[in-house]
Request: fold
Amino acid sequence: MTHSSNQVYPVIWHNDSVSLIDQTRLPNEYAVVEIHRSEDMARAITTMIVRGAPAIGVAAAYGIYLGAREIETSDRHEFLQHLEQVAQLLRSTRPTAVNLFWAISRMMKTAYETLGTVAELKQTLFQTAQAINAEDLQTCQAIGANGLAVLPKNPAKMTILTHCNAGALATAGYGTALGVVRSAWTEGRLARVFADETRPRLQGAKLTAWECVQEGIPVTLITDNMAAHCMKQGLIHAVVVGADRIAANGDTANKIGTYSVAIAAKAHNIPFFVAAPLSTVDFELSDGSQIPIEERNPTEIYQVGDTILTPEGVEFYNPAFDVTPADLITAIITENGAFAPGELAKSKVKQMV
Reply:
């Protein structure tokens, strides 16, 4: 089943609850999950019903509000104590995506700084979550426009390779890496997207391909180990990927396999771009070695549906992310413009002005 509208919004407030597109069921089934409680939001983030760093941040912001709504006290101190427990539950869901922590931090700062009754405080938290949602959408559209400005001018219509899903589904809508793709497509600059299938969870095959089909963008799916071959054949003009956390020096954590694509792009002299909001940059970390890497259940590797792929007795290693060193990245495309990795500090200054 395809979704009737081209506009994809994976996290929206609707009828007094949060509606999430269930990304575990795509592309075969378009299903929406209604989230009414903070515990259910934490579970949705952990089980990857909602995924992609910006989308996780938006979901967590709403999760804080849902938790706030459940707290039945008019005592401010008691309310904030309970809210801290909600925040801790949500923080424990996914360790690598910094937008999660950024959004929770912003919500909690709002809670502590808002004066007035507990009822007024809850209302302010709701407004802040909605603001985070709306801002992310605007941010993605700005990233798309800024990405278009730095893409190669030749050929006039280019082919872009992407890895994992950094599309509307991974954000409040529009996307980061796919936001750049969408902008290129709208401006007539894009011939085709090559999407890595992105083992082991197949986000490229299931989600990126689905988004492209929804919008009529020509998309060719390849397995992850075909990327270098396609580059050698001259089929790829630029690589654009998203990010889950970027260190202050520009080292970037993204879905496992991104590092390999960056090495291949460097070897073939193909520009490699990271598209991400400034909220993904963790200025507290000097370099990528400090980024925590989530390890996930090995069943993702050895099992597809009910089928076991491997012999008994095999050991597994399943890191969900890898870190691409800054020297392999042509530019980091943010809502404030595109920056060489070493110039990210300037983007921070620009953000504060």
User: Anything to note?
Assistant: The CA atoms of residues 97 and 244 lie 5 Å apart. The chain has two domains: 11-139, 149-352. The chain has eleven helices and 16 strands.
